[in-house]
Specification:
The chain crosses the membrane at residues 53-73, 79-97. This is PLRKT protein. The structure is a single chain. By secondary structure, this protein is mostly helical. The chain has one domain (1-146). The protein is 79% helix and 0% strand. It has four helices and no strands. Helix 1 (2-75) runs antiparallel to helix 2. The longest helix has 74 residues, at 2-75.
Length: 147
């Protein structure tokens, strides 16, 4: 009688463990999907912001170029055109970020760093551990009572 009961308990325990494993896997998959969705949305917002900024900066750059060119012609001094140089670099960068291949090049460089220069990514004092976090939490907590 005891053997049948213990076998039933063991089977129930095994089934419960399998259920918990599947449940934690499903929860992890959902978490990964949610994090990826949030990352994609943040990247899309960054690209959209860059494109919107480019419209305003492009207008400013165009007006500045026309105004500086007119000033250079009026004063007969090509030095007046000098501010167009840094402004054109900013404009080119923003255009590349919003409509060009800057993000693909950045992604490729990031993959290169991950593959070949892993030591650049190491944190000072190594990765954070649970024990370190608990030590910090205990030192900062006003309500923690040591047992």
């Amino acid at each position: 009688m005891g053997f049948i009961f213990s076998k039933s308990v063991n089977d129930s325990l095994k089934a419960q463990q399998e259920f918990m494993l599947m449940n934690s896997r499903l929860q992890l998959e959902r978490q990964l999907l949610m994090q990826n969705q949030m990352r994609e949305r943040q990247t899309a917002m960054q690209i959209a912001w860059t494109r919107e900024f480019l419209k305003y900066f492009g207008t400013f750059f165009g007006l500045a170029a026309v105004g500086l060119t007119a000033g250079a012609i009026r004063k007969k001094s090509p030095g007046v055109l000098l501010p167009i140089v840094p402004l054109s670099f900013i404009f080119a960068y923003q255009y590349d970020m919003g409509y060009g291949t800057l993000l693909q090049r950045m992604k490729g460089e990031a993959e290169n760093i991950l593959d070949t220069q892993r030591t650049l990514l190491e944190l000072p004092k190594g990765p954070l551990t649970y024990e370190e976090l608990e030590k910090i939490r205990r030192s900062q907590s006003k309500f923690f009572i040591e047992k």
